[in-house]
């Protein structure tokens, strides 16, 4: 018996909520990746890990919010919790591998393609592993061509996202890139769901333990939402991630270096770019010369 599948049981509510969650995770992940690439300090691995976890968590939450709208008319759906949460681990791990490749090997064409492919395969694996955690009185079947198309979309979306992380600067540009990423990830999800058909064995509910989609929604939203909020707080406390190039150094820091005047050696502190240009020893710096000290005659 063929089941009647409905992917939009709650109308437009679940697609919009899923899209927003994908955008949030993508925006945080892209900004963290940008931060790690532009600043080679001891926090590089931490920023990359935060970016990978943000993207993986955002995509995973997007998937299961969208699955709230998925139903089979003749049979209730339950979820196996270990498999469901294993899909989160796969998403974070494989997205992390792709991001760390770009972060440590540089933003070359080869690393972008390699990292994007691994990240995209991670997104696709997360989706189909999450689908494998579904329990119903029947079996889920897939159209092979549509599945292949969804994997290609995931890889292209991931590669584009990594390219945006290393090429797009500024808050508004990054926001636009995260919206594009949200569209791509959501498009991958609904393309994959269009490949689904359900062959029912009967109309009786499946036995065993498990949680319905409704009972899974609340715990899935609380944990990832708290994490993404905390990640957003970390991002917002770093001016470079929001505004692009730092401007807290003041106009004097941007004064061109005067020929013949050696610039003092400066060790970048946390939050400063590695190529920070030290304040030149100009008129402002000379004001600190003790009274009676020798002053240069070239100014």
Explain what the structure shows:
With 299 residues, the protein is mostly helical. It folds into two domains: 5-243, no CATH class; 246-289, no CATH class. The protein has nine helices and seven strands. The chain has a three-stranded antiparallel sheet with strand order 4-3-7. It has a two-stranded antiparallel ribbon with strand order 1-2. It has a two-stranded antiparallel ribbon with strand order 5-6. The chain is elongated, with a radius of gyration of 25 Å. The chain starts with a strand and ends in a 13-residue tail after the last helix. Residues 206-210, 245-290 and 293-299 have low confidence and may be disordered.
């Amino acid at each position: 018996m063929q089941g009647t599948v409905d992917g939009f049981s709650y109308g437009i509510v679940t697609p919009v909520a899923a899209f927003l969650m994908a955008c949030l995770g993508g925006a945080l992940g892209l900004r963290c990746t940008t931060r790690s690439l532009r600043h080679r300090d001891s926090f590089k691995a931490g920023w990359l890990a935060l970016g990978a976890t943000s993207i993986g968590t955002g995509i995973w939450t997007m998937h299961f919010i969208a699955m709230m709208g998925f139903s089979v008319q003749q049979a209730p759906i339950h979820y196996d919790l270990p498999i469901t949460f294993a899909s989160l681990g796969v998403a974070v791990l494989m997205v992390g591998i792709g991001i760390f490749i770009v972060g440590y090997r540089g933003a070359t064409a080869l690393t972008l393609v390699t990292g994007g492919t691994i990240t995209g395969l991670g997104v696709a694996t997360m989706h189909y592993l999450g689908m494998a955690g579904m329990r119903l009185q029947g079996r889920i079947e897939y159209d092979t061509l549509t599945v292949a198309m969804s994997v290609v979309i995931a890889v292209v979306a991931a590669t584009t996202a990594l390219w945006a992380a290393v090429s797009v600067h500024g808050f508004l540009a990054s926001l636009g890139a995260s919206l594009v990423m949200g569209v791509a990830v959501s498009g991958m999800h609904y393309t994959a769901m269009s490949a689904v058909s359900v062959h029912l064995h009967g109309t009786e509910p499946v036995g065993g333990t498990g949680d319905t989609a409704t009972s899974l929604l609340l715990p899935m939203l609380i944990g990832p939402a708290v994490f993404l909020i905390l990640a957003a707080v970390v991002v917002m406390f770093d001016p470079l991630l929001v505004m692009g190039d730092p401007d807290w150094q003041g106009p004097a820091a941007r004064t061109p270096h005067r020929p013949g005047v050696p610039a003092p050696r400066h060790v970048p502190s946390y939050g400063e770019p590695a190529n920070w240009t030290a304040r030149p020893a100009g008129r402002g710096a000379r004001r600190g010369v003790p009274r009676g000290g020798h002053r240069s005659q070239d100014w």
